[in-house]
């Protein structure tokens, strides 16, 4: 029988916890009084939190069963559309509340614009570096590879391009000002919000650094902080009435001053060629507003619903959103139901860990970004194709016995980008070899993927269940609301069937 060390064997003085909690030596009576008061306050707060958790638990037990939906995407991939799907739920549920947050979203759109321009400026810096390497390689330094010869298709930048680039440098200040506005003072809520300074690193090495995106832990908190910040001068954001357009510190002022140069840069044929040569498709990237520059950089710009759906802000961790939704169609006579939607990034390796926390969900909305068929997973495994990774995650979710009674709704998302890529000539079969020589068009490719996901669903589900699949562009409010309406009714029907009411 192995002998275990018992707590009583430990000398109290040696116990690191006791040491850490012990009052400091030579504590004065006044210091002791302050310490005891702080300890009492900490205890009071801890008790209040315990009480709130208990109260919530009792309320949850008494409340009628609510509908629980899990939104799931692959963790580590660039934005897939979870938050955008949630925004659609919010638009259905409380459009007014959604619209009162326009001021916060205005700053996010502005940041998205600045970052797209930054990507172009970085690409220009790359091109310059390739034409005139900053430091010539010493012929004796054999550890370094020779300076790269500029690719023949890389266009040459003119002095006017370089002047344009210089004139856009103030955007760096705009970026910093926006980050200050979006980051609540003293908050650890945001991760790695700053982009590196303009760099000579090749774009191919930079593009995967998703950590450089601005990120929040939960959408509610950052907006709350922003609203508090803004509400010192205004009371409501409905229709942008109360955005302080006269504020001289508004980052929008510099953005507006740079507007013509940004438009010139984006429409410049040489810059277009440069981006193409470097395989940068800004129009496929999240938070793309360069085709609406004049509108979104106007001094009195107020984001539309569509802009809010397209704005990019990365979410961290798991968040829960609660709201009431009225049933439609056949169920329209029913009272509204409480819905809880959980926003979870699922890593393939962690499915079995989180599945036990979400085994009582009524539905999982699984988002698979089919537009990423030509990209690789950079975070989990650089050698795995993103679409393949999404399919493997789908397989682990549908085969998980803990989730066998949960309805799984598949959203094959970002079909607008998927279509655009195929039309631009990118060959689906170059990445999905089994696609063979089928036509490189949307109908065939989307159908092929639907069948693949469906076959796995049938083969791997522990018990038979329906396969629900939608081709989605969740930035399109109208079509998404229609689809969510169907999902809502399906989930309610199942929910009622399970309670033997229909
Ligand atoms: N064109 C297009 N853009 C989309 C679509 N779905 C989402 N987006 C955009 O992609 C970006 C990322 O979407 P999010 O909803 O933030 O993605 P997410 O899954 O919440 O990402 P994380 O928070 O990083 O986990 C946003 O700018 C969206 O507007 C789509 O179907 N088509
Ligand atoms: Mg998100």
UniProtKB/TrEMBL annotation:
One GO process term, biological-process aspect: adenylate cyclase-modulating G protein-coupled receptor signaling pathway
Key words of the record: GTP-binding, Magnesium, Metal-binding, Nucleotide-binding, Transducer
GO cellular component terms, semicolon-separated: cytoplasm; heterotrimeric G-protein complex
Family annotation (Gene3D superfamilies): P-loop containing nucleotide triphosphate hydrolases (3.40.50.300)
InterPro entries xrefs: Gprotein_alpha_su, GproteinA_insert, P-loop_NTPase
Any GO MF annotation of the entry: G protein-coupled receptor binding
Region Disordered: start-end pairs: 1-31, 132-157
Chain sites annotated for binding GTP: 309-315, 413-416
Mitochondrion recorded as keyword: no
Low complexity composition-biased segments: 135-146
Name of the molecule in the record: Guanine nucleotide binding protein, alpha subunit
Species: Crucibulum laeve
């Amino acid at each position: 029988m192995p002998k275990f060390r018992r707590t009583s064997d430990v000398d109290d003085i040696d116990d690191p916890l006791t040491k850490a909690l012990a009052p400091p030596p030579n504590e004065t009576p006044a210091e002791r009084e302050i310490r005891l008061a702080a300890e009492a306050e900490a205890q009071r707060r801890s008790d209040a939190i315990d009480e709130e958790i208990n109260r919530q638990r009792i309320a949850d037990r008494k409340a009628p069963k609510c509908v629980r939906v899990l939104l799931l995407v692959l963790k580590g991939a660039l934005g897939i559309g979870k938050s955008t799907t949630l925004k659609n739920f919010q638009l259905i549920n409380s459009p007014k509340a959604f619209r009162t947050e326009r001021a916060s979203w205005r700053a996010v759109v502005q940041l998205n614009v600045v970052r797209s321009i930054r990507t172009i400026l970085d690409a220009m810096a790359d091109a310059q570096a390739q034409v005139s390497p900053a430091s010539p390689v010493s012929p004796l330094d054999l550890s370094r590879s020779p300076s790269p010869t500029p690719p023949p298709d890389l266009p040459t930048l003119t002095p006017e391009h370089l002047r344009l680039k210089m004139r856009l440098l103030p955007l760096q200040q705009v970026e910093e000002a926006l980050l200050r506005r979006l980051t609540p003072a003293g908050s650890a809520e945001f991760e790695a919000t700053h982009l590196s300074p303009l760099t000579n690193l090749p774009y191919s090495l930079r593009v995967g650094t998703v950590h450089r995106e601005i990120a929040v832990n939960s959408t509610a908190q950052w907006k709350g902080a922003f609203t508090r910040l803004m509400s010192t001068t205004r009371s409501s954001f409905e229709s942008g009435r109360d955005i302080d357009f006269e504020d001289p510190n508004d980052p929008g002022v510099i953005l507006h001053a740079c507007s013509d140069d940004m438009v010139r840069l984006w429409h410049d044929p040489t810059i277009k060629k440069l981006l193409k040569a470097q395989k940068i498709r800004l129009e496929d990237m999240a938070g793309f507003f360069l085709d609406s520059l004049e509108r979104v950089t106007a001094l009195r710009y107020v984001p539309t619903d569509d802009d809010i759906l397209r704005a990019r802000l990365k979410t961290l961790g798991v968040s829960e959103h609660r709201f009431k939704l009225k049933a439609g169609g056949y169920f329209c006579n029913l009272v509204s139901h409480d819905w809880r939607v959980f926003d979870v990034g699922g890593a393939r390796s962690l499915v079995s860990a989180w599945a036990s926390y979400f085994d009582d969900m009524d539905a999982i909305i699984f988002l698979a970004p089919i537009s990423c068929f030509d990209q690789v997973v950079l975070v989990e495994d650089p050698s795995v194709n993103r679409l393949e990774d999404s399919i493997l995650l789908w397989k682990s979710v549908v085969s998980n016995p803990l989730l066998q009674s949960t309805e799984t709704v598949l959203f094959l998302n970002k079909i607008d980008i998927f279509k655009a890529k195929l039309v631009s000539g990118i060959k689906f079969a170059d990445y999905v070899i089994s696609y063979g020589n089928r036509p490189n068009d949307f109908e065939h490719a989307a159908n092929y993927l639907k069948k693949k996901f469906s076959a796995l669903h049938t083969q791997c589900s522990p018990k038979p269940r329906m396969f629900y699949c939608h081709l989605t562009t969740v930035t399109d409010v109208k079509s998404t609301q229609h689809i969510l309406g169907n999902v809502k009714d399906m989930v309610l029907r199942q929910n009622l069937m399970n309670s033997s009411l229909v």
